[in-house]
Automatic annotation (TrEMBL):
SUPFAM superfamilies from the UniProt entry: Adenine nucleotide alpha hydrolases-like (SSF52402)
Listed name of the protein: tRNA-specific 2-thiouridylase MnmA
Highest taxon of source: Bacteria
Keyword tRNA processing in record: yes
Localization, UniProt: Cytoplasm
Region (Interaction with target base in tRNA): 94-96
EC number(s) reported in the record: 2.8.1.13
Residue intervals of the tRNA-specific 2-thiouridylase MnmA-like C-terminal domain: 298-356
Family under the similarity heading: Belongs to the MnmA/TRMU family.
Class of this enzyme: transferase
Gene assigned in the entry: mnmA
Organism, scientific name: Akkermansia glycaniphila
Disulfide bonds, paired cysteine numbers: 99-196
Length: 364
């Protein structure tokens, strides 16, 4: 039996995680991280008050202690600023991945350790495997539709050693069933959407609040002006909608194929396998120093949460930087995005080996 702190969001997944740990006979305390309170009144509603109420209801039902930990200041420093800076620089930040390393398994884990807990459990769909040498590794969650290991790819080994993912070996319907069996008030609660802290606030409203419009031209690969945009930060590679340029050809859409950051120009082209700029054959990924062991010479690289992992050759070019040469061209990579690395040991790569940020992209 160990003392475990459960990160309880007020959603069904972490509620079921807490229930399973209680069932196993551990000493369990649950805590809600208060990260974001929308004190600047960005349009939309932030459901945190409801989440705290639901989390409290779960703890009452399970007979465990519930705490609320105020991390609003740290969240602003480590996540909100990173997000705004990323967009300001024209890159594509990923606050959910950073939130796991910097908040949940960063300041929140520090809090847990100070309070005498041995481990921190979350409701992530991921698994932990311990190898013969007693090293812990993150594996993909068993439910292929819910696997969240991508979001854990920047975690440091010492953070992984303290992590527990009680529902990672279950399918989502089983998780709901456990919550129902235990009579938890969250059993039928809708899954949360999108960025962890923004809740119901739309990303575009959030960005508009912090970053003023910065209009510029929309051009094609030949430099012809096709329209105007309100700010490069409102677009991402491969985006089909929202640029407002109608395609003159039936059935083929214009997509974002690049950003000319110095000249504040958005570059669009027709969607197609050979669209210049849209497909990458190689990339440099930096800040990969946190891996438990050096990355292997062949990896499976996953560039986004919902994208498939692709086979690539992986070569170190500095202590914390690798060059990836993809076996097949990869669509719509963006600077600043997180690339997760998996061991190429199974069809989709089951074992997470680490992650980093795209620093350079070479298109086909
Ligand atoms: N505000 C929060 N306070 C405490 N823990 C949190 C909070 N937000 C997220 N977590 C933890 O991180 C896990 C993954 O968060 P994510 O936002 O992806 O939620 P989710 O997959 O919808 O899970 P849930 O159903 O538990 O909300 C949660 O299961 C929970 O353990």
């Amino acid at each position: 039996m160990s003392r475990i702190l459960v990160a309880l969001s007020g959603g069904v997944d972490s509620s079921a995680a807490a229930a399973l740990l209680v069932r196993e006979g551990h000493e369990v305390v649950a805590a809600y991280m208060k990260n974001w309170i929308n004190d600047e009144n960005i349009p939309g509603e932030c459901p945190w008050e409801q989440d705290i109420e639901d989390a409290l209801g779960v703890c009452t039902r399970l007979g465990i202690e519930f705490r609320v930990v105020d991390l609003v200041e740290q969240y602003r420093e480590r996540i909100v600023n990173y997000l705004i800076e990323g967009y300001r620089n024209g890159t594509t930040p990923n606050p959910d991945v950073m939130c796991n390393r910097e908040m949940k398994f960063g300041v929140f884990l520090d809090y847990a350790r100070e309070q005498g807990f041995d481990q921190l459990a979350t409701g992530h769909y991921a698994r932990i495997r311990t190898d013969e040498e007693n090293r812990s590794w993150i594996m993909r969650g068993l439910d292929p539709n819910k696997d969240q290991s991508y979001f854990l790819s920047l975690m440091r080994p010492e953070q992984i050693d303290r992590a527990l993912f009680p529902i990672g070996g279950l399918l989502k319907p089983q998780v709901r069933e456990i919550a129902r069996e235990c009579g938890l008030p969250t059993a039928a609660k809708k899954d949360s959407q999108g960025i962890c802290f923004i809740g119901q606030v739309k990303m575009s409203d959030f960005l508009r609040h912090y970053l003023p419009d910065n209009p510029g031209d929309i051009i094609d690969a030949q430099g012809r002006i096709l329209g105007r945009h309100k700010g490069l930060h409102l677009f991402t590679m491969g985006q089909r909608k929202g640029h407002g340029v109608a395609s003159p050809r039936e059935g083929i859409a214009y997509v974002v194929i690049g950003k000319d950051i110095p000249n504040n120009r958005l570059i669009i082209g027709y969607e197609g396998d050979d669209t210049r700029g849209l497909y990458a054959r190689s990339a440099i990924v930096g800040t990969v120093a946190n891996t438990r062991l050096p990355l292997p010479p062949r990896v499976m690289a996953q560039p986004r949460y919902r994208a498939p992992a692709v086979h690539a050759a992986c070569t170190y070019i500095a202590e914390d930087k690798v060059r990836l040469d993809f076996d097949q061209p990869v669509r719509a990579l963006a600077l600043g995005q997180v690339c997760a690395f998996y061991e190429p040991d199974a069809e989709r790569g089951e074992q997470l080996r680490g992650g980093g940020f795209f620093e350079e992209i070479t298109s086909t």
